[in-house]
């Protein structure tokens, strides 16, 4: 089952231009493109004639998307506007169009009933819209359910084992003060670790020699978006609160504000978007590149584990997993998803639900 009535990241804005881009979202092919005036559009990636992907076609000067095969054209609303060798356009010559919105670094797609596409429901990601700040963004295709990634991002016990070369160290699990809170569809995992050895990435990026205080505040926004606030600060100083309006510490500090957002491709594969934002006045371009490269390398280590997990789960679908203490936040998030799925099922049985 896919949760339909949500905003999902379809692409990084920089990926979408006049060359059509195909992406499979919630099990359906979608073509993303920009019309000559720069506006983004999203249609079902399927010509009404012989089902050829429209992403193989071209965006015309008049803003229509023309099929590569026999030349049929569609406007951004999915309505056919031209059929070669005939003047009559049948009423049924219409493909599905999606509501899109551009926010921060991403192009968002509403997959449910267009009447309920409220842009205020898009994750705000305020750190990514601060004037003067910059961002690094990336995309990973992962052959596992998005739920495994949600579970992964909320259980930090994997850091010393999967990421010892970057963000993992023993201190991250030995002495952490942990809290898990839920509010509506949001779950916060807050962890603070005092007087621990910094992990390799922080040592290299921040030049920390001795021990540090470290924090991880991870905000899950159901069903599949995250905001991460993480960093290290000199021993003797309290980790900062995650809010964007908090005063900056004068202590030696390396703090990071990043996002993760998962868009299901199929039940067992995921479009995984990541990004982090930085203030160029406090972080050089070289340092931003270094942090992003380390971060991306870290995610690729997770992908190896997650895909192996999916392979095993496919082979043994009936096996019940054992939950451990460090699963607490992940279990809360999966409960949010389960509740959203049940609510959607209930709506399907009611009269107002019209999503496909
Ligand atoms: S398949 Fe698109 S025009 Fe024929
Ligand atoms: Fe990880």
H/E element order: EEEEEEEEEEEHHHEEHEEEEHH
Calculate the mean pLDDT score and round it: 94
Biggest sheet details: 7 strands, antiparallel
Which structural category do the helix and sheet elements fall into?
alpha+beta
Strand content: 25-35%
What would you call the shape? globular
Which hetero ligands occur in this complex?
FE2/S2 (inorganic) cluster, fe (ii) ion
Q: How many E-type strands?
A: 17
In the predicted model, the low-confidence regions spanning at least 5 consecutive residues are none
What is the CATH class of the largest domain? Alpha Beta
Strand order, largest beta sheet = 11-17-16-15-14-13-12
Query: So how many helices?
Result: 6
CATH topology of the largest domain: Naphthalene 1,2-dioxygenase Alpha Subunit, Chain A, domain 1
Question: How many independent structural domains?
Answer: 2
The fourth-level CATH homologous superfamily of the largest domain is Naphthalene 1,2-dioxygenase Alpha Subunit, Chain A, domain 1
> How far from one another are the termini?
12 Å
Q: In angstroms, what is the radius of gyration?
A: 22 Å
Helix content: 10-25%
CATH architecture of the largest domain: Alpha-Beta Complex
């Amino acid at each position: 089952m896919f949760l339909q009535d949500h905003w999902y990241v379809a692409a990084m804005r920089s990926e979408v231009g006049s060359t059509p881009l195909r992406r499979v979202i919630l099990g359906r092919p979608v073509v993303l493109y920009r019309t000559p005036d720069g506006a983004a559009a999203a249609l079902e990636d399927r010509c009404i004639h012989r089902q050829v992907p429209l992403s193989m076609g071209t965006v015309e000067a008049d803003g229509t998307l023309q099929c590569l095969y026999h030349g049929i054209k569609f406007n951004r609303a999915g309505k056919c506007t031209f059929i070669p060798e005939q003047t009559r356009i049948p009423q049924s010559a219409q493909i599905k169009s999606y509501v899109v919105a551009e926010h921060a670094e991403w192009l968002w797609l509403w997959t449910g009933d267009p009447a309920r596409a409220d842009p205020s429901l898009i994750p705000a990601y305020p750190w990514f819209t601060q004037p003067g700040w910059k961002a690094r963004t990336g995309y990973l295709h992962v052959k596992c359910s998005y739920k495994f990634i949600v579970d992964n991002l909320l259980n930090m016990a994997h850091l010393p084992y999967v990421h010892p070369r970057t963000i993992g160290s023993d201190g991250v699990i030995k002495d952490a003060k942990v809290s898990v809170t839920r509010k509506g569809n949001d779950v916060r995992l807050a962890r603070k670790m005092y007087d621990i050895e910094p992990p390799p990435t922080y040592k290299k990026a921040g030049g920390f020699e001795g021990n540090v205080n470290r924090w991880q505040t991870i905000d899950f926004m159901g069903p599949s978006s995250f905001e991460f606030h993480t960093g290290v600060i000199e021993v003797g100083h309290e980790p900062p609160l995650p809010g964007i309006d908090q005063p900056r510490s004068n202590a030696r500090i390396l703090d990071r504000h990043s996002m993760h957002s998962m868009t299901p491709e199929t039940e067992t594969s995921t479009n995984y978007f990541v990004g982090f934002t930085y203030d160029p006045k406090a972080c050089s371009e070289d340092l931003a590149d270094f942090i992003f490269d380390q971060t991306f390398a870290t995610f690729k280590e997770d992908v190896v584990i997650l895909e192996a997990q999916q392979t095993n789960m496919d082979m043994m679908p009936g096996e019940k997993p054992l939950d451990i203490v460090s699963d607490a936040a992940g279990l809360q998030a999966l409960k949010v998803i389960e509740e959203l799925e049940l609510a959607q099922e209930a709506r399907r049985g009611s009269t107002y639900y019209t999503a496909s």
